[in-house]
Structures are given as structure tokens and as C-alpha cells.
Amino acid sequence: MFSKKLPPLQSFLVQVSRRASHLARQQYDVIVVGGGHAGTEAAAAAARVGAETLLVTQKIHTIGALSCNPSLGGVGKGQLVKEVDALDGLCGRAGDWAGIHFSILNRRKGPAVWGPRAQLDRQLYREFIQSELLSTPRLTVLEGSVEELLVTEPDPEEPGHHRVTGICLANGSQPISASSVVLTTGTFLSGSLFMGQTSSPGGRIGDAPSSAGLSQTLRERLGLRIGRLRTGTPPRIVKDSVDLSLAELFPSDSTPTPFSFLNTHTRCKPEDQLPCHLTHTTPGVERVVMESLHLNCHIQEDAKGPRYCPSIESRVLRFPGRQHQVWLEPEGLTSDLLYPQGLSMTMPPDVQLRLIREIPAMHRAEIHTPGYGVQYDFVCPTQLSPALQVKNTQGLFLAGQINGTTGYEEAAAQGLWAGVNAARWALSLPAVMLSRTESYIGVLIDDLVSRGVTEPYRMFTSRAEFRTSLRPDNADLRLTLKGFEEVGCVSSLRHQEAVRVRDSLQDALEALQTLTVSTPTWRKKLPNIHISEAKNTIVTGMNMLQYNDVSFEMLASAYPECLSPYMEFSQRLKIEGNYNSWLRYTSALLLNFATTVNSLSLKHFSCCSAVYRPHCDLQKKEIERIQKEEKMSLPQDIDYFSLPVSLSQEVREILDRVRPSTVSLHIQCICYFPKSFFLAAEEPIYQSTLGKMN
Known about the structure:
Blueprint: H1 9-21, E1 27-33, H2 37-49, E2 53-57, E3 71-73, H3 77-86, H4 91-98, E4 99-105, E5 115-120, H5 122-134, E6 139-143, E7 146-152, E8 162-169, E9 176-183, E10 192-195, E11 198-201, H6 212-221, E12 226-233, E13 236-238, E14 248-250, E15 276-280, H7 283-291, H8 312-318, E16 325-330, E17 337-341, H9 349-356, E18 367-369, E19 372-379, E20 393-394, E21 396-398, H10 408-426, H11 440-451, H12 475-487, H13 492-514, E22 516-518, H14 519-525, E23 538-540, H15 541-545, H16 552-558, H17 560-563, H18 570-597, H19 602-606, H20 613-630, H21 649-658, H22 665-671, H23 675-680, H24 684-690
Helix pairs in contact: 1-5, 2-10, 3-10, 3-12, 4-5, 7-9, 12-13, 18-20
């Protein structure tokens, strides 16, 4: 992959502009509005599924722009990137191309909660995304602003009160028709920028907000509940004005780990990667914040900001007297700017300069671009189905910050899945869902549509009940085959690679399991490993791999004839070995938990390796029952208040408000359904109300 040469950025703009000014058609299968992380993944996914797709964005040269932090991945977020890549998305490969500092966060903990992360070169990332979109078949890019949606009467054979049939552009040109539309407006939906006591329309500095007509259509014409959220970004610092010797150096990993399962290495060599630096706030920073609160209208607004990436003003107000981390991160291989992560702020520019100079490493720092805040509209996501389609509007899909999330990775994951289902809707194919038992994308979507948001939503590993199985290293085994066989968004090339990896891992695990040697022989083969003298039994290679100090490379060196063919999977095999021993201890707990929340699926276990199978077999009968319950579809017009089953008034109110499509895990956890609810569908008297089991 890394041998290919990207076309120059100007060449890309000329080619796309030519295509944009002469649209070959006024009818598309899918129209995607917005060119951020959600929009680019949605457009590419829809085209891969087979839909003729149009991507509409305000400025072509900002497609794929990293509006805030030039980084990708992290704890929970890295899992999303790996899953998007497993489904043939763009951001993982773009991260491998543009990464300039790769690291695995949380490495001191178990592999399930490792967080693959990379600092990115802004220009390289943007160029890669633009190049990929330009070379995607069935995808056209148009520069323009969407004024409103075309809304007509619904198809009576489908659920919903409205139907979207296309878009109108702000320039007054002829409307463009489509079977489905994906809105990925980010922070641009009625966006406002804040700096000090001034505000102006916009979703990003230098760009205009989306048309007010679009918000009006969503709110008034479609009757959607709209909320208001806020976020912010820190000032960009001139690198040469910072004394990095006063900050703690953090180099990248000596062996970078790629995001994409198609890549064995990253484009930037380890010796060429740039370090990050860590410093901290001082009491002077807190003093400047408190003295300038009256000059900061953004922090005084009622709109909710991100809890897990707060502004420095919010941190000081919430945790007075504390010291806060500030990461100084490079913005590119040749960039002369630093990104001070942890210093998002919206005070006046002169006060921002005073504040950053209270930090020793930046006592002479100069600001290139001041920080600012953004407020924007979002659609309450409980109004969406698990396919990310608006429940009351046929053909309308939403993805990204418009659904109340924050972060590139969350946006990309939603964009891909919304694009897939928008294409399938346009091609008259059934919608596809991802369970929270099989992916972080499923966790993300289920959280949004089942629980909604009261603040910008961020992914963490703690949100996934089955994170020990939803690891970054096995996303390809969990999702790529499904993406090819059931969803239709994965190329044959990637599918072939996933099949090869699956079969090779299976062979390697069987080789480890059949390698049976006495403990005295193991002591001779691995003299530096402590093996108890009291043990004089036959031990398999898999058992040995469970020792913390034993690596697969050591075993392959001892028995090259049967293990050396699998060296490329050494880390993945080590992880599987560790989890084999862990599962011996926790299988009973998992079984009890599964029985309680009714949430495991057989398809989840089909991704597991041979070492998981004994534990999976114990749960097979329970899973079959649970699968049957998960397939219970709930009609959208059901009257929960008169439903003749034992449910509390509180539960009925939750169900009436959320109106879930199925009995998902979160709905079960929130509502604690009685057994009578699940049995009701089998009774003729209730079948017309609850619907039949699939």
C-alpha cells in the first residue's frame, strides 16, 4: 500500500471541481451531506455497497480535515478505528499513512483495554482521504451548501410519517434527488463560534455554518427533538517559542502498531517519528482563569460540553487547586506548530497568551491561532433506529456529532454504518445491525439509540460489557467476514486476507494444543523460565504460552518445525493464550452475568478461537434462548401503557419515550423485563401487539 503515490492536492481539487461543476446526473441512490470523518466514511461505504453516491461539502479542500487534535485512536477509540478498518473503512489506513507518533495506551493492563493511538500529520491525512474518495467507484463529490431537504408523503408500506427524496442547494440550482440522504453536519448545524465576549456564525473557524433552513426542516417539518451542545479547541502554539527541555519527553513506541489489518508497518519509520512532551498547569493558570470569567461568555452558556475533554476553564471550576496535564503534540513532520492538548479555552486572545505563559515550558510562547468554542444543534438520537435511520422519516440517516457524540472515531464509526444502511435502503435491501456483543460500533449505536445523550458522548472500553472479547487485535475476525458476506461493504481482497488469517490462527492454535511435552523437557528447552519442580506432567504449548515470561517466539525457537510458520501471528497468539487462562477463572462469572442481562449471541462466539470453545459450549443452550429473545421485534405503534404484562409505570414511560426497535441489551438492563414479556409473543392474544418472533 505504501508504495503508491498520492496525487498532488491541487490536482485533486482541479479534478473534483470539474466533476462538481458538471454533475452527470440529478438522481442518486445516496446523498451524503458533510465531508468530515462521518461523511467521508458514509460516502465511501455507500459506494462500496453498490450505491451511486453524491458527497456534498461546503469546501472540497477541507474534506478529511482534522478540525481539532491531529490524532487518531486511544482507549476505546482505537477499538473503533480497528473495527472501521475491518469493515473496509478509510480512517485506519489513513492513520497508518499520516501517523508520525504511534503508541499503545494502557499497555500495562490487559490487551482487551489497550488503546492504539497515533499522532497525525494534518496535511498527509487530509490528502490520503481525498485521494481515496477520488478513486472510489460510484462516488461523486460536489462543493455546495445544502439549504433544505426534499420531503414528501411516506410510502404507506414502510413505517414513518415522512419521506426524504433529495436536497436543495443554497445556490438555487436544480434540486438533486436521492432514495436516501445521510446528514453528517458535525458542528456546523446552526453552529456558533465563541471567543471571549464575541460570537459569530460558524462550525469551524474560517468556515460558514450550515444553512438555517436545514435545522428548520429537521425541527419544524420533521418534528424532531433538537438539542444544543458545545465543544472547543485550544490555541495552536509556535513550536520554536516553546522550551521543550522543561517538559517531559515521551517517544513513540519502538515498534509502531498499524491501525489497518492490511498493513504490516506504518509509513513513517520508527526512527523518523516525532516525540510528544508532557507538562502541567500551575497556580498561575488557575488565577488567570478565575480573573477572566467575566470576559468568557461561552463558559457561561447552558449548553453541555464534553465531560472527558473539558476546557481548561471547566477543569479549574470543577477541580480548583489541582494540577492538570498538558500534552504538547506535533501537528506534522514539517509543521512549526504544537497542539497543547488539555488547554481548550474560549477566553479573549490576549488572556489566552497570558494563561499559556504561566506554564514554565511556554513562558515565552507565541500563539499562532487562538482557541475558540463552538455551539451547535444535535438531534436527540433516541429518535433513530439501530440502522441510524430517523424513525419517523423514511430514507433519512444521521451520523456523527449531529447524534450527540464527540470525536473523530465515534463519527467515523457511525458514518460507515449509516452509509451502509442508506445504500441498502436505496437498493431495496434490508437494514443490517451490529450487536453490542460483537463490536464497539454496536455498543456505540445501542447506547445512542437506547439511552440518548445529555452531554457529548465519548467511547470508553468500560462501556462494552464484553470487552475481553471485543479486542483491537481480533476486529477482523469479528467483522470482516460479516462485512463481506452479510453487509456487502468489504472488498474481496480484504475478505481473502481475513480468511487466510482466520485459518492460519486456527492452525497455529491447534499446533500449540497438540504440542505436548513433559515438564522436564520444557525446563531444558526454556531454561530461563521458572517451571515448578513439583510439576512432572505433560504440558501443551498453549499451556506454556500462558506463562507471562513465555513468548510465542521462544516456543517457535524451541520447536521450529511445527511453530515457525506462524511467526507473523506471535502477538495475537500470545493474547489468545493469556485469555485462555483468564477465562478458566471467570467463565462461571460470565455465565452468571450472561444469564442476568440476556445479551450474548452465538455469532459473537463464532469469532472466538479454539481456546474459547470449552467455555462457549457451557453457555450454548443459554445463548440459544437469549438469541430468541433478542430477535423479538417491537412495533413502533405499540401502546406500552395498556400492555397486559407486569411492567412498572417507570418502565412503561421509558419504553414509550425510547420506542426501541428490538429488545436490545440496554433496554433489558434499563427495564428489567419479566419473563412474561418474552413469553407474550408466543400467546395469540398478544401477537398483534408485540409481533411474532422472527
